[in-house]
Amino acid sequence: MNAHVDDCLISGYEDLIPSLTLPDPDDCHVLAAAMTGRCDIIVTFNLKDFPDSALQPFGIERQDPDSFLLYQLDISPGKFLNAIRKHRARLKNPPVSQDQYLEILLRQGLTQLIQALKEFSQHF
User: Fold this and answer.
1) 57 with 79, same domain?
2) What is the pLDDT of residues 39-56, one digit of tens each?
3) How many other C-beta atoms lie within 10 A of the C-beta of residue 1?
4) Are residues 27 and 50 in contact, defined by beta-carbon separation less than 8 angstroms?
5) What's 8-51 look like in SS3?
6) What is the value of pTM for the model shown?
7) Cα–Cα distance between 112 and 97 in angstroms, integer?
8) Are strands 41-43 and 61-63 parallel, antiparallel or unpaired?
9) What's the confidence (pLDDT) of residue 1?
């Protein structure tokens, strides 16, 4: 990812970690990095360790990956489907059929996204 997204790495957040409180202290670096990066959302399957009460003071929301990706599809279907096509095309060893790709997404827990993508099956 570092090679493809110039600003994907966040640094300089380490001093914030001791001042933060989360159910799992080992997750405080994620919140600190989100604050430093001025992020609006932390995308994680680990919602229980990022309670709204801990994020709201910093104007940060939490969202599971399935909901996040479904929202991306909703706001920009063309761009999202293009990204899906590109991603699937990169899976070459072995090549992945559309059904196999959906199975991969299912194993990742992206059930809502899979249902939505079925409407666009001819496009990816």
Assistant:
1) no
2) 999 999 999 999 999 999
3) 6
4) yes
5) CCCCCCHHHHHHCCCCCHHHHHHHHHHHHCCCCEEECCCHHHCC
6) 0.86
7) 20
8) parallel
9) 62
